[in-house]
Write a structure and sequence with these properties.
The protein has five helices and no strands. By secondary structure, the protein is an all-alpha fold. Helix 1 packs antiparallel against helix 3, helix 1 runs antiparallel to helix 4 and helix 4 runs antiparallel to helix 5. It is rod-shaped, with a radius of gyration of 25 Å. It starts with a helix and ends with a helix. The model has no long low-confidence stretch (mean pLDDT 91).
């Protein structure tokens, strides 16, 4: 009997370690995508504002050549288009949703199971994780395919 208990504890701890690892990983990815989306937004706004200033302020307009103004204007469009095509904002949201679901399963494993969980209890949490992974993978693929023409 002690071997079964040890085995169950090991299984629970392994699953818990996997949840913690994945939670940190997806949170890091979510933050990267969020900050990339925000950075490109601010870069686009800065480039658009600079283009407006270069075109509207007489002293700047006289000192600026047309190709320079066109280049700054194009940068604004480039930053916006790149951000939309890559989908940093949508990716960040997807990663944050996955983190929230992993946290739910982690809390279930840590706090909602009986003090001495059975193999079926641990298997149920693992099965819920597998179902969540499949659902999130399908959502990721649907998101990717929705962007393609």
């Amino acid at each position: 009997m002690p071997d079964d208990t040890q085995s169950l504890d090991e299984r629970k701890n392994t699953l818990l370690a996997e949840f913690i690892f994945d939670e940190k990983r997806y949170l890091r990815l979510a933050r990267f995508n969020y900050y990339a989306a925000q950075g490109l937004l601010w870069a686009s706004l800065a480039a658009g504002s600079l283009a407006a200033l270069l075109g509207l302020v007489p002293a700047l307009a006289a000192a600026t050549e047309k190709w320079q103004l066109g280049l700054v204007s194009a940068l604004s469009v480039l930053f916006t288009t790149f951000s939309q095509q890559v989908g940093f904002h949508q990716r960040a949201n997807w990663h944050y949703r996955k983190v929230h679901r992993i946290r739910t399963l982690r809390r279930q494993l840590q706090f909602e199971l009986p003090t001495s969980p059975t193999a079926d209890d641990i298997a149920a949490v693992s099965n819920a994780r597998s179902a969540m992974d499949l659902e999130m993978s399908n959502e990721w693929e649907d998101r990717k395919l929705a962007k393609e023409p």
